[in-house]
Each structure stands twice: as C-alpha cells, then as structure tokens.
Amino acid sequence: MFGNGMTEWLLVFVVGLLILGPERLPAVTRSVGRVMGRAKSMLADVQRELSESVPADELKVVSDNVKMLRQSNVKTLVRRVVVDEVTELERKQG
C-alpha cells in the first residue's frame, strides 16, 4: 500500500511508538485503519457510480483525447484544431 516497503513501515512504527507511546499506539493504529477503510470504501463507491453513469463510449473518447494530448505538442494540436474550425466555417459560409 502506498508503494512503501517494509523498512518505511518499520520506521513509521518506531516513530509512532516514540511519539505516542506503547499504550496509545494500538488505539491510534486502529483508528487510522478504520479511517483508511472508510476512505477506500468511499473511493470505490465514487468509481462505481462514475462507471455506471458515464457510458463506456464517452470514456473511450476522453481516454483517446488524453492519449493524443500526451503524445503530441499541445501548441501544434491547438493550431490544427483552430485551422480546422476556421476552414469548416469558411466552407459553410462560402
């Protein structure tokens, strides 16, 4: 969880033990665990609601657009979109 190894968690435990003391550390650890569980549950609920409310084809379009933006130069992309829109407007008017 959080990309931390055993040494990092051991360090957190030792610091927590020094700061909180051996009598309060288990209670704080349980409280933190409960909060993390609730946060994880709420995140899963939000993800589930989003996946149910947004159609898959719209998500694919957004995903493709994000990939295109990551792979290209944004300045060039904006220029291309503006030129395409101006060309389309000129075609409709004239």
List keywords for this structure.
2 domains, elongated, 94 residues, protein transmembrane transporter activity, protein transport, transport, membrane, mainly alpha, 0% strand
Number of domains: 2
Task: Name the shape in a single word.
Answer: elongated
Poorly predicted runs: none
Strand content: under 5%
> Mean pLDDT score, rounded?
85
How far apart lie the N and C ends? Answer: 61 Å
Number of strands: 0
Element-by-element helix/strand order: HHHH
Protein name: Twin-arginine translocation protein TatB
Subcellular location: Membrane
Membrane topology: Single-pass membrane protein
Keywords: Cell membrane, Membrane, Protein transport, Translocation, Transmembrane, Transmembrane helix, Transport
How would you describe the overall organization of this protein?
By secondary structure, the protein is mostly helical. The chain folds into 2 domains: 1-53; 55-94. It is 85% helix and 0% strand. It has helices at 6-20, 25-53, 56-71, 74-93. It is a single-pass membrane protein. One of its GO terms (biological process) is protein transport by the Tat complex. One of its GO terms (molecular function) is protein transmembrane transporter activity. Keywords: Cell membrane, Membrane, Protein transport, Translocation, Transmembrane, Transmembrane helix, Transport.
Summarize the structure.
The protein has 94 residues and is mainly α.
